[in-house]
Specification:
The complex is a heterodimer of chains A (163) and B (206). By secondary structure, chain A is mainly β. Chain A has one helix at 8-28; strands at 40-48, 56-65, 71-78, 81-92, 95-100, 104-106, 111-114, 120-126, 135-142, 151-160. In chain A, 13% of the residues lie in helices and 47% in strands. Chain B has 206 residues and is an alpha/beta fold. The chains are: A mainly beta (163), B alpha/beta (206).
Chain lengths: 163, 206
């Protein structure tokens, strides 16, 4: 970040401001939250626009751990949906069986594909304003070293119409 | 006497043996008969692959034979299914677009929700029609649903999933049934499928 800043003076001011922002956020929130740094990427990510008659829709993409540490995802949320769950779909004895994955651990650079007919994000009860062509932010919750879901990693994805 | 007695004895033993053999043959025949009857019954039950059936459309009685088209596609799932069902409905909708307008008229699509406890019938109908305005979303009583499930060997299992907001999920086959006017299965497409595969199946049947 600092290497992009032109002069040493700007660098000093930048560092001071960054420190001030962290300090303020630390004070304003009793439960310290690690500053938001993207740790996950959702390559070619999208969610399908919700349809009338069903409270559920799905999101897809290739989830990649772009951090240098092993991450355990324990939840996903968004202001645009009441709840989001990570699901796996597996075929068992000719039946498609869907189950919630409470946790997903990814090593650095490890990918996890979410695609129709397989693993997916199940999104519940969209905000009625969410429509095709919008972009929504999905925030992945990641466990910290003490096992608390304090690390957040947001991704922005488009809302697509079902083909 | 002794000779007579001996002969009589022999005759008695022979008669007993004969009687035993007869009984054995009788029992064996009965076992074979019961087995054959059972086999025929099971074979017939297994070979039942479709037929006419009754369901409900927007809370009104609905009978397949009254709505049957040249080709009828039946898919069994539920409206709250986020992944597999809408993907399949999209595939069928896209496949229909590959047909000319005249051929499209000869194909009907029926989506049966087995989730009668949670899927409102109007919701099922509205849900299906968004993939293609001609798509018909159906449901029915549990008995009607289970009858269709039996007719097409389409097992479904309602699994409680307390970890999920929905509280359950329904395991079901991802299978597209192509039916004739009598509701008999002409062909089926199993998962994984594509719109191209469905379109070429339709072109072959039309």
């Amino acid at each position: 970040m600092n290497s992009r800043i032109a002069s040493p003076l700007t660098s000093v001011i930048g560092s001071f401001l960054a420190f001030a922002v962290v300090s303020v956020s630390g004070h304003s929130n009793a439960q310290a939250v690690t500053p938001v740094t993207p740790r996950l990427d959702l390559e070619r990510g999208y969610v399908f626009a919700p349809l009338a008659g069903s409270p559920a829709t799905a999101g897809y993409g290739v989830l990649t751990n772009i951090s240098k540490e092993t991450l355990t995802i324990v939840g996903v949320n968004s202001e645009s949906f009441k709840a989001i769950e990570l699901h796996e779909t597996k075929e068992e004895n000719g039946l498609m069986k869907m189950k919630r994955l409470p946790k997903l651990t990814l090593k650095p650079q490890q990918k996890f594909e979410l695609k129709p007919g397989g693993n997916h994000l199940m999104l519940f009860e969209a905000n009625p304003l969410v429509k095709q062509g919008d972009r929504v932010t999905l925030v992945f919750q990641i466990e910290d070293k003490t096992g608390k879901p304090t690390i957040q990693s947001p991704v922005d994805v488009p809302v697509k119409a079902r083909p | 006497m002794s000779n007579f007695g001996y002969t009589r004895g022999m005759q008695t033993d022979d008669a007993k043996t004969y009687s035993k053999i007869s009984k054995l043959i009788g029992v064996a025949s009965l076992v074979v008969l019961v087995g054959l009857t059972l086999a025929v019954f099971l074979y017939q039950r297994e070979s039942i692959d479709g037929g006419d059936f009754e369901l409900q459309y927007r809370n009104q009685p609905w009978r397949f034979s009254e709505h049957a088209n040249d080709i009828n596609i039946l898919y069994i799932g539920y409206a709250k299914c986020p992944d597999v069902c809408p993907m399949t409905l999209s595939h069928v909708a896209q496949a229909l677009k590959q047909l000319g307008p005249a051929d499209q008229q000869k194909v009907s699509f029926f989506f049966l929700s087995v989730d009668r406890d949670h899927d409102n019938q109007d919701d099922v109908a509205t849900y299906a029609s968004q993939f293609n305005p001609s798509f018909i979303g159906l449901s029915g009583t549990r008995e009607q649903i289970d009858n269709v499930s039996r007719l097409y060997h389409a097992t479904y299992i309602i699994d409680p999933d307390p970890n999920s907001r929905l509280g359950y999920s329904i395991s079901h086959a991802d299978r597209i049934h192509f039916l004739d006017r009598k509701g008999k299965v002409i062909t089926k497409i199993q998962s994984p499928h594509s719109s191209d595969e469905i379109a070429s199946a339709l072109k072959g049947l039309l």
